[in-house]
């Protein structure tokens, strides 16, 4: 543990050092079943209920590869402009850690299914940076540990740990960039933009639900510094637990400053994993990094090689969707947005969700206003990215449709969406369980109106005398009595009718 | 000729969580060299035209369809565990073992 000292100013860091980044992103595929067995691939669930002898590593159980997961892996490789291996194998990565009950993780080592690609990443000001992709390989996720005892619930100081293997064996693709050099001041921004672009791409392909908050997309950020003008890379740290786009940016910036401070004092950067602390944006030392020899990789003897034919690869290439950035160019034209409007839409993370909401049948203006206003507020107050809100474009489109057909008012629509965000189900389920439908039954309304009219005879006189705008007071009283669940326009009509002022 | 050092062997034993005594290290270093030499002989006969194999069956692309199959209940899953708590496997303290 180093003691807290003055950290170097960011400008000074950049005067003296060049940052080099390497980003490793793990993405859980949204297949129905796990990578090597037929257990459900589902988030959550009672502990150890999505398990079988294979993913528990019981003696004699044998893995069989999920063909859909291989297809997703190839499609991801193609989306990242990678070469697809003509022949590759799985490998055992051996380590003793109870998150894998087999004592090894089935992964790929020197024969990744996809390699040598790139992703063009757009920064906030419209500048494009090409990030090289080293490889994308297939592996399996680990189980989840719960550390008991100790003060913090962390592994340090815990008395013992509890393991849930529901996630063990879930198909995982690890995507590794080539070293990203020359980003300088913008390195933290490039890191964030890369993960954003990758997330958008994977979402558009439909291969993962890419929820950083649920861990279906996770980023490890490798950062090192070279003294200005020095070609050789410095010693790197690998920051884990970076669970939001904002954290990716903060973690990279923090590590740049921390390492520069160490180096400028003549100290060494230790090659180690570090943990990102969401609360204060710092990183703390984890375990020293194992060397890859320590994992004693060897080809997995229980699985046969994968040899995708070029016909299969081309067939999968033809299933690639419109890429997010192409879609953005198209929606800019179709929606007649200026560059600035489009950039705002992209920077708030709204472009793709708005487009998906439009695809689900909503008018462009409604879709835009829901995401850019109400839902952006919700995302901000929860501290999550817009796309990570637990509401889908299809659900938003449904609410918009219900409003336009008069089943919901705008106010009720917002309440329905809040219910969806609270995990109460689809809009229609929320409406049913919260009883949110607009009161369109005239007899129910009439009763409330008669009551309000009786309470304010002076207003009734005014209306009868031709002052129809006085009806507003009655409308207000009725809306209050029905807790906002009435259609104000219909209420007004009924008031005028009953006062004979039509 | 010695291909594996005593230190390397001790490191490997540690990685594999094997308790190997000092005396055993001396014995095994020599034995492992014999094994490594024997395996190296295979490399002498296999020419560049013979691709390395990891599997006896000459198969590729053996896939399963993405369909859910019944697995174990929580009770069954935990039935062989020495200890469990709240439906989870209970394992001893993880860190500390290495120090």
TrEMBL record, chain A:
Record-annotated Asn/Gln amidotransferase domain positions: 352-499
Gene3D superfamilies named among the record's database cross-references: 1.10.10.410
SUPFAM superfamilies in UniProt: GatB/YqeY motif, Glutamine synthetase/guanido kinase
Biased composition (Basic and acidic residues): 287-299
Molecular function, one GO term: transferase activity
GO biological process: glutaminyl-tRNAGln biosynthesis via transamidation; translation
Protein biosynthesis is among the record's keywords: yes
InterPro entries associated with the record: Asn/Gln-tRNA_amidoTrfase_suB/E (IPR017959), Asn/Gln-tRNA_Trfase_suB/E_cat (IPR006075), Asn/Gln_amidotransferase (IPR018027), Asn/Gln_tRNA_amidoTrase-B-like (IPR003789), GatB (IPR004413), GatB_Yqey_C_2 (IPR023168), Gln-tRNA_amidoTrfase_suB_CS (IPR017958), Gln_synth/guanido_kin_cat_dom (IPR014746)
EC numbers for this chain: 6.3.5.-
Signal peptide: none
Reaction it catalyzes: L-aspartyl-tRNA(Asn) + L-glutamine + ATP + H2O = L-asparaginyl-tRNA(Asn) + L-glutamate + ADP + phosphate + 2 H(+); L-glutamyl-tRNA(Gln) + L-glutamine + ATP + H2O = L-glutaminyl-tRNA(Gln) + L-glutamate + ADP + phosphate + H(+)
Domain of life, source organism: Bacteria
Start and end residues of each stretch annotated as Disordered: 277-300
Membrane-spanning residues: none
One Pfam family from the record: GatB_Yqey
UniProt KW keywords: ATP-binding, Ligase, Nucleotide-binding, Protein biosynthesis, Transferase
Record carries keyword Ligase: yes
NCBIfam families, per the entry: gatB, PRK05477.1-2, PRK05477.1-3, PRK05477.1-4
Family statement drawn from the similarity comment of this UniProt entry: Belongs to the GatB/GatE family. GatB subfamily.
Function: Allows the formation of correctly charged Asn-tRNA(Asn) or Gln-tRNA(Gln) through the transamidation of misacylated Asp-tRNA(Asn) or Glu-tRNA(Gln) in organisms which lack either or both of asparaginyl-tRNA or glutaminyl-tRNA synthetases. The reaction takes place in the presence of glutamine and ATP through an activated phospho-Asp-tRNA(Asn) or phospho-Glu-tRNA(Gln).
Subunit structure: Heterotrimer of A, B and C subunits.
UniProt protein name: Aspartyl/glutamyl-tRNA(Asn/Gln) amidotransferase subunit B
Automatic annotation (TrEMBL), chain B:
UniProt-listed SUPFAM superfamilies: Glu-tRNAGln amidotransferase C subunit (SSF141000)
One of the Pfam families matching this protein, by short name: GatC
EC number in record: 6.3.5.-
Classification via InterPro entries: Asp/Glu-ADT_sf_sub_c, GatC
GO biological process: glutaminyl-tRNAGln biosynthesis via transamidation; regulation of translational fidelity; translation
Entry superkingdom: Bacteria
Keywords: ATP-binding, Ligase, Nucleotide-binding, Protein biosynthesis, Transferase
A molecular function GO annotation: glutaminyl-tRNA synthase (glutamine-hydrolyzing) activity
Catalytic activity: L-aspartyl-tRNA(Asn) + L-glutamine + ATP + H2O = L-asparaginyl-tRNA(Asn) + L-glutamate + ADP + phosphate + 2 H(+); L-glutamyl-tRNA(Gln) + L-glutamine + ATP + H2O = L-glutaminyl-tRNA(Gln) + L-glutamate + ADP + phosphate + H(+)
Subunit structure: Heterotrimer of A, B and C subunits.
Role summary: Allows the formation of correctly charged Asn-tRNA(Asn) or Gln-tRNA(Gln) through the transamidation of misacylated Asp-tRNA(Asn) or Glu-tRNA(Gln) in organisms which lack either or both of asparaginyl-tRNA or glutaminyl-tRNA synthetases. The reaction takes place in the presence of glutamine and ATP through an activated phospho-Asp-tRNA(Asn) or phospho-Glu-tRNA(Gln).
Name the record gives this protein: Aspartyl/glutamyl-tRNA(Asn/Gln) amidotransferase subunit C
Organism taxonomic ancestry: Bacteria, Bacillati, Actinomycetota, Actinomycetes, Pseudonocardiales
């Amino acid at each position: 543990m180093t003691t807290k000292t003055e950290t170097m100013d960011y400008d000074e860091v950049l005067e003296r050092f060049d940052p080099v980044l390497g980003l490793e992103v793990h993405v859980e595929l949204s297949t129905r079943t796990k990578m090597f067995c037929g257990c459900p691939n589902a988030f959550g669930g009672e502990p150890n209920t999505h398990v079988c002898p294979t993913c528990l590593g019981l003696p004699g159980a044998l893995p069989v590869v999920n063909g859909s997961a291989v297809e997703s892996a190839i499609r991801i490789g193609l989306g990242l402009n990678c070469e697809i291996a003509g022949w590759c194998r799985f490998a055992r990565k051996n380590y003793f850690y109870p998150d894998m009950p087999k004592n090894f993780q089935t992964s790929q080592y020197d024969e990744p299914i996809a390699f040598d690609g790139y992703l063009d990443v757009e920064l906030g000001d419209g500048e494009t940076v090409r990030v090289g992709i080293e490889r994308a390989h297939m592996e399996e996720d680990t189980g989840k540990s719960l550390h008991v005892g100790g003060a913090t619930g962390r592994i340090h100081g815990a008395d013992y740990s509890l393991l849930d293997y529901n996630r063990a064996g879930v198909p995982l693709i690890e995507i590794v960039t080539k070293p990203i050099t020359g980003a300088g001041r913008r390195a933290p921004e490039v890191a964030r933009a890369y993960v954003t672009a990758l997330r958008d791409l994977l979402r558009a392909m439909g291969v993962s639900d890419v929820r950083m908050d649920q861990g279906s997309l996770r980023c490890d950020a490798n950062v090192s510094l070279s003294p200005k003008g020095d070609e050789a890379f410095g010693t790197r740290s690998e920051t884990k637990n970076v669970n939001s786009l904002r954290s990716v940016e903060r973690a990279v910036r923090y590590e740049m400053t921390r390492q520069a401070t160490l180096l400028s004092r003549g100290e060494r950067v230790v090659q180690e994993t570090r943990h990102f602390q969401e609360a204060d944006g710092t990183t703390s030392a984890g375990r020293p990094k194992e060397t890859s020899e320590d994992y004693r990789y060897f080809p997995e003897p229980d699985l046969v090689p994968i040899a995708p034919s070029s016909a299969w690869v081309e067939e999968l290439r033809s299933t690639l969707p419109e890429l997010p950035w192409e879609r953005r160019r198209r929606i800019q034209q179709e929606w007649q947005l200026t560059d600035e409007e489009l950039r705002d839409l992209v920077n708030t993370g709204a472009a793709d969700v708005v487009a998906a909401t439009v695809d689900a049948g909503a008018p462009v203006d409604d879709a835009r206003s829901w995401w850019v206003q109400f839902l952006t507020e919700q995302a901000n107050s929860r501290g999550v990215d817009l796309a990570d809100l637990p509401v889908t474009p299809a659900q938003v489109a449904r609410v918009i449709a219900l409003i336009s057909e008069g089943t919901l008012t705008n106010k009720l629509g917002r309440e329905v969406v809040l219910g969806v965000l609270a995990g109460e189900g689809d809009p229609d389920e929320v409406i049913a369980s919260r009883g949110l439908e607009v009161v369109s039954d005239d007899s129910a309304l009439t009763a409330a109106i008669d009551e309000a009219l009786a309470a304010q005879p002076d207003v009734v006189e005014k209306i009868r005398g031709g002052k129809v705008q006085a009806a507003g007071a009655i409308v207000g009283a009725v809306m209050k009595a029905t807790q906002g669940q009435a259609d104000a326009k219909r209420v007004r009509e009924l008031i005028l009718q009953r006062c004979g002022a039509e | 000729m010695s291909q594996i050092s005593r230190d390397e062997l001790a490191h490997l034993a540690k990685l594999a969580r094997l308790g190997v005594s000092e005396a055993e290290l001396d014995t095994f270093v020599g034995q492992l060299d014999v094994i490594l030499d024997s395996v190296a002989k295979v490399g002498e006969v296999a020419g560049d035209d013979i691709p390395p194999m990891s599997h006896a069956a000459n198969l590729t692309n053996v896939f399963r369809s993405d369909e859910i199959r019944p697995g174990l209940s929580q009770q069954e899953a935990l039935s062989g565990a020495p200890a469990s708590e709240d439906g989870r496997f209970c394992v001893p303290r993880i860190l500390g073992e290495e120090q």
